[in-house]
TrEMBL record:
Compartment list: Cytoplasm
GO BP: 'de novo' CTP biosynthetic process; UDP biosynthetic process
GO molecular function: ATP binding; UMP kinase activity
Organism in which the protein naturally occurs: Neisseria elongata subsp. nitroreducens
GO cellular component: cytosol
Name of the protein this chain belongs to: Uridylate kinase
Keyword annotations: ATP-binding, Cytoplasm, Kinase, Nucleotide-binding, Pyrimidine biosynthesis, Transferase
Documented activity regulation: Inhibited by UTP.
Length: 239
């Protein structure tokens, strides 16, 4: 018997770093296959999955400011990095027998479809994983913001932010051993306690659209399935 899932349609935000594994940069095949395996598990439970992928493992626009590069140009390079990750992810899904499509906010018709909301929703309904590349298509934003935007547009039940830490803590668990993970926290509490869940623009959009967020660590085997089944995994940030 398949377990009842809490969510029917999710938006998963994967940072570029999530694909690096223990490497210094780029894409680690074993790591990407581990993530694909976890997504496959929930697709098989009938969950519709949209993914926004970051690009920080290849290029991060903001940091190049130090090199005096024009910020918008650097950001477009960052968005192009997300397209590279999206293609790698799609390839990995296909090798695992999972149907996936890439839609890019930056038109690149030879290699990916251009983002089109109705088509994306149709793919989700067909059980295909939709990988959203190219961020929002605009400089000065992050892929966290792209994730909240696509999550809201796709009418997702929740946004799942996969990170290196397995939730939101009372303090930085790497520095403070007494730090405790929140099982749940409201948007208002997170704001008043100045807990960093996502960047301010992304957080504000989720709050405004009442799109709850679960912050969790995807490195743990089966974590994604536990989250979508509503088990005590990660931190639920709710209205
Ligand atoms: N980026 C952008 N607009 C967007 C999304 C991303 O300009 O809507 C650029 C920005 O330079 C960012 C880079 O793409 O630094 C990679 O995205 P991000 O840092 O969010 O990736 P992650 O940290 O999730 O790997």
């Amino acid at each position: 018997m398949t377990p009842q899932t809490k969510y029917k349609r999710i938006l998963l935000k994967l940072s570029g770093e999530a694909l690096m594994g223990n490497d210094a940069f780029g894409i680690n095949r074993e790591t990407i296959m581990q993530i694909v395996g976890q997504v496959k598990e929930i697709v098989e439970l009938g969950v519709q999955v949209g993914i926004v992928i970051g690009g920080g493992n290849i290029f991060r626009g903001v940091s190049t400011q130090a090199d005096n590069m024009d910020r918008a140009t650097a950001d477009y390079m960052g968005m192009m990095a997300t397209v590279m990750n999206a293609l790698a992810l799609k390839d990995a899904f296909e090798s695992a027998g999972v149907k996936a499509r890439v839609q890019s906010a930056l038109p690149m018709q030879q290699i990916a479809e251009t983002y089109a909301r109705p088509k994306a929703i149709q793919y989700l309904k067909e059980g295909k994983v939709v990988i959203f590349a190219g961020g929002t298509g605009n400089p000065f934003f992050t892929t966290d913001t792209a994730a909240s935007l696509r999550g809201a547009e796709m009418n997702c039940d929740v946004m799942l932010k996969a990170t290196n830490v397995d939730g939101v803590y009372t303090a930085d668990p790497k520095k403070d051993p007494s730090a405790v993970r929140y099982e749940t926290i409201t948007f208002d509490e997170a704001l008043s306690k100045r807990l960093k869940v996502m960047d301010a623009t992304a957080f504000a959009l989720c709050r405004e659209r009442q799109l709850n967020i679960v912050v969790f660590g995807i490195a743990k085997e089966g974590a994604l399935k536990r989250v979508v089944c509503g088990e005590n995994e990660g931190t639920l940030v709710h209205c």
